[in-house]
Amino acid sequence: MEWKSIYRSKLKTADEAVQVIKSGDHVYIHPGCAVPETLIKAMVARGGELTDVHIDHILTIGEAGYVSEEMQGHFRHNALFIGSNVRNAVGQGLADATHIYLHQVAKLFYDKILPVDVALVHLSPPDEHGFCSFGVGVEMTKPACEMAKIIIAQVNPNMPRVLGDCFIHISKIQHIVEVDSPIKEMPQVGEVTDPGEQEVYDKIGGYIAELIEDESTLQMGIGAIPDAVLNYLENKRDLGIHTEMFSDGVIKLVEMGVVNNEKKTLHKGKMVASFVLGNRTIFDFIDNNPIVEFHPSHYVNDPFIIAQNRKMVAINSALQVDITGQVCADSIGPRLFSGFGGQVDFIRGASRSPGGKPVIALPATAKGGELSRIVPYLIPGAGVTTNRADVHYVVTEFGIASLFGKTVRQRVNELIHIAHPKFREELRAYARSVKYI
Ligand code: COA
Q1: pLDDT-based confidence at 223, cuts 50/70/90?
Q2: What spacing in Å lies between the alpha carbon of 254 and ligand 1's midpoint?
Q3: Fold for domain 195-433?
Q4: Which of 87, 90, 319, 379 to mutate for ligand 1's pocket (most ligand atoms within 8 Å of CB)?
Q5: What is each CA distance from 361 to 150, 209, 316, 364, in whole angstroms?
Q6: Fold of 2-178
């Protein structure tokens, strides 16, 4: 019972707790739907008293007041994956971005490349032993807490208690702020209102489903493409999940018994993830649910761990793919859009998995059909996220291009075949001009 009095002794208001942040500190923020809004607001409110505070995190949901123009000089954000709330600030040079594989973010903390002076986290209430769960995301927050000099925790009864390697004892936390507010929900980026667009995603989903054999283990990101795939898996058998993140679409397949994890070769019987992005439905699903095991991203996303899953199918998306197979997923020209996240981690893990299939899926066009996403070369300033030797399958609504082990000539033909018909001749003409075909 000792921990209960320790817990009480650490209780503060948010305004009191954030007083420990000093000018020049590195502050880590729990990302995704776990974002500790009350603590962030309190920190930003005292921004005027602080200078040069570094704010480090991957994608968060909601307001990020520390990137506003008024906060320049007080806070400087470093996006380890750019979310929509900081994208403009990065584009305007008001915030920084770091290219990093998700499985290596923890290494930045462990190797003290990124110090963690203060960690702001959002936790479930302690259990009978005094352990709080990291809730909707354990990703790199557990490593950040292991390295943090000071941890300030927002403790919330609405935070699900998830199972796995995702707990912290209250003795490790310096300041506790109790809140009772809804967990931030991710608007479903995959929700499509345009029927034409929906048709494109459905076709892509159908093609990806063709690649998924019974007994496969899946990684899927959020968005229209993974959600569309899930609609085509109802006739599959004995699927498993090993993924950095998942959202609501998976629940139906679990309830139908399609996802039962029984044939997994690692963590048999369990879905493995390191965070969820979604709404209350998914938060309730993971609460105390022994079918789901959460682990930090340096474990879940380690390509050598991923590869231990037989028939691992990794499904990731892209902004552009050139006709040799170079994938750009994190920038539109020089405009930094998102990040590496787990794309390369899973593409490489799946390619080493026995029977594994790394898949890149994208609509053939952007901007209402004006632009081809299959391009002669990546537009100037665009970066390669997944390189062409790592790419195996590329899927659009026009089919599946199989690139692994293929010559440049074969790749070019495969990729032109899945481009929108109205751009194919232009792509062919370019390929001829540089003697690819
Ligand atoms: N040229 C110009 N604009 C383009 C474009 C192109 N070739 N391709 C896409 N766009 C625009 C779209 O029109 C859209 O604009 P809008 O927001 O104004 O509608 C925007 O870029 C996003 O494109 P969309 O295809 O809707 O993105 P998405 O939400 O499906 O996400 C990625 C796709 C690639 C951005 C996303 O998967 C990502 O960030 N990946 C990073 C790496 C990764 O896969 N990690 C694993 C998961 S963490």
Answers
A1: low
A2: 28
A3: Glutaconate Coenzyme A-transferase (3.40.1080)
A4: 319
A5: 42, 12, 6, 9
A6: Glutaconate Coenzyme A-transferase (3.40.1080)
